[in-house]
Amino acid sequence: MDITLLKKLIKVVETSNITEFSVQEGDLKVRISKNTKSAQIISPSANYQMPVVSSKVESAANEQTKTEAAKPAAEASENMHEIKSPIVGTFYRAPAPDADPYIQVGDSISEGNVLCIVEAMKLMNEIESDTSGKIVKILVDDGTPVEYNQPLFLIKLD
Fold it and tell me: H/E element holding 83?
């Protein structure tokens, strides 16, 4: 596989919505990912790091991360508050798959109200509100993984 083909593949990944691409040609396997710091070429005999490829992929990943991080910050104003995840896990809006969600957009909440569950290591952790206000936006989809300190809800303070 020649370097011009690799460059074309990198361009395709950078300009598309996909986050990972892999192709195999014989014993040679190439994987390009926006989420990692380097792309790897894997062959049966050795692993090779390609710094030229990684800098392009890394810069694209950094730009995407900066854009995503700026969205909640731009929406927050002086009277807005973010409820953040205290742990890494899976976000659930309801106590059971067939149950109603704890809260909806537009609901008024008070300090101590249960807002959601974050499942970590098979333990269901209830996430409570640390303030009173009105739910303006739910920032995470049901059943998706969340990181530590990731914003979950946007609340307009009373």
Answer: strand 80-84
